[in-house]
Amino acid sequence: MRGRTDGSQKKRLITIVCVVAIFLVFLYAYYGSLFGSQGRGALEYGSKSLRKLGSSYLGGDDDEDGKQDESSTKFGDDEDGVTPKSFPVCDDRHSELIPCLDRNLIYQMRLKLDLSLMEHYERHCPPPERRYNCLIPPPHGYKVPIKWPQSRDEVWKANIPHTHLAHEKSDQNWMVVKGDKINFPGGGTHFHYGADKYIASMANMLNFSKNILNNDGRLRTVLDVGCGVASFGGYLLSSNIVAMSLAPNDVHQNQIQFALERGIPAYLGVLGTKRLPYPSRSFELAHCSRCRIDWLQRDGILLLELDRVLRPGGYFAYSSPEAYAQDDEDLRIWRQMSALVERMCWRIASKRNQTVIWQKPLNNDCYMTREPGTLPPMCQSDNDPDAVWGVPMEACITPYSEHDHKARGSGLAPWPARLTSPPPRLSDFGYSTDMFTKDTEIWQRRVENYWSLLDSKISADTIRNVMDMKANLGSFAAALRMKNVWVMNVVPEDGPNTLKIVYDRGLIGSIHNWCEAYSTYPRTYDLLHAWNVLSDIEKKGCSGEDLLLEMDRILRPTGFIIIKDKQSIVDFIKKYLTALHWEAVATSDSSDDEGDEVVFIVQKKMWLTSESFRDSE
């Protein structure tokens, strides 16, 4: 019988070969994702391996069966959970990933959005099965950013390797490529010869003292809509004015990334269908320099959104062809826009050359004299003007409260006294002047303690862009006033909306839900301050691991995180230090009466991807 194949042996051999092949494929898939060269093991949208690594990127949402991934949400002792020793590195093409503003996600999910309403530039966060669980790599050749104030005028080209704006806006002095750097001459679409001259011209139009736009401290917070690379906001800083520079991730890609790389306050957002993430009466001035916005659409709803966020007597500076051109189309727009703002009770404060500045009324007198049925209507009494997170805009005018109507203005002290003066809206939360003063003093001591712990690691120009992830009354930022920094004060969407107190102190910030990714590019902040942030999302059932990955995404290499939380949270974070390439810098017991909290400071290491992944530099 030699030469005759045994059927049972053949079957066993085929079975063994198949099992070995399946095992080898599994090993290749798993370890390839961890150690793939140049991030070739990147995790694609929808990859089931994301969840097996212990986390759905930025969610804490339920799995398909309604149960959360226990290993990614457990903050205490994780006897059953798995803490990863390393995270895979995302593909290089995701080095600028913004999870909730990702156009690839919109295309892949076939979201039906109205492009004419800019819905495709609004936040659309990935569902659990499409979230990333990997570290965002820096671009090839990334360097530690240039320090402020030099960074206002130049950045490393390698850090944001996009030069199309330099060519597209070459006649407007937005930016110029020079060797390994990108320079910013201070120009803009409407101010080719420099933002500083343009700003002085606006102050002169309003008859402000010495042509300084801050008007002796009475004009402090500005909203710059369609800001480009934020040169307008950058040049306002020398006048003690802080601007929230706002632009979408549109055809002028990376404009907000350039702004933040320069050390200028900026936020990714759009005037679309949802309210901006700022409370009512936040800004003394809104500005639009050829921002290409159709202000007449939908019964003037976008102008009415500006009206909502402007303070009593606030200004809207509009530089655009409609303000001066004489062709038929521009004249039509100008007439209709003038009629609209007149019905909104705005008046022209000044008009010169190519710029018009309107002013909002100080109280409700004009609103009460409008003819019945005049459009736009007044908002209903149950319309909360400070509710903003995911709230649709409404084409209505927000009236002042009885208190504000009688006060005929915001009642705020001029800057810098505004920073430490209890604002009138403090009473909205039942807070007393004494409580406000005590909070300010407590955070002054805490920040002094933080800086003593950081002393060996930082110099005067190490830190520029700061985020307070749970700002409360803004006292952490207030304590940093003498530092050469600016602070993005973030207030959780589900707590007391104290962001209006933050703005009333002459600071800026936004509302956010930390169960989702923040609207910013990777590597945009030098320091994150997390006071009880992880404890809060633990109570909400969101994933602590996911939040750590998000914090890593927005933190610059060599940047710092200050965690002030309970000991169990700190122990949880320590398990992830190696996987995140973070290094413990300091630990300290709380120096105030909150004895159950500890301070833990970490630093993000510089790591790069090249032909192979390198742990650190």
Automatic annotation (TrEMBL):
<dbReference type="GO" id="GO:0005802">
    <property type="term" value="C:trans-Golgi network"/>
</dbReference>
<protein>
    <recommendedName>
        <fullName>Methyltransferase</fullName>
        <ecNumber>2.1.1.-</ecNumber>
    </recommendedName>
</protein>
<comment type="similarity">
    <text>Belongs to the methyltransferase superfamily.</text>
</comment>
<dbReference type="GO" id="GO:0032259">
    <property type="term" value="P:methylation"/>
</dbReference>
<keyword id="KW-0735">Signal-anchor</keyword>
<feature type="region of interest" description="Disordered">
    <location>
        <begin position="56"/>
        <end position="86"/>
    </location>
</feature>
<keyword id="KW-1133">Transmembrane helix</keyword>
<dbReference type="GO" id="GO:0008168">
    <property type="term" value="F:methyltransferase activity"/>
</dbReference>
<dbReference type="GO" id="GO:0005768">
    <property type="term" value="C:endosome"/>
</dbReference>
<dbReference type="InterPro" id="IPR029063">
    <property type="entry name" value="SAM-dependent_MTases_sf"/>
</dbReference>
<dbReference type="Pfam" id="PF03141">
    <property type="entry name" value="Methyltransf_29"/>
</dbReference>
<keyword id="KW-0325">Glycoprotein</keyword>
<keyword id="KW-0333">Golgi apparatus</keyword>
<dbReference type="InterPro" id="IPR004159">
    <property type="entry name" value="Put_SAM_MeTrfase"/>
</dbReference>
<keyword id="KW-0812">Transmembrane</keyword>
<keyword id="KW-0472">Membrane</keyword>
<keyword id="KW-0808">Transferase</keyword>
<keyword id="KW-0489">Methyltransferase</keyword>
<feature type="transmembrane region" description="Helical">
    <location>
        <begin position="12"/>
        <end position="31"/>
    </location>
</feature>
<dbReference type="GO" id="GO:0000139">
    <property type="term" value="C:Golgi membrane"/>
</dbReference>
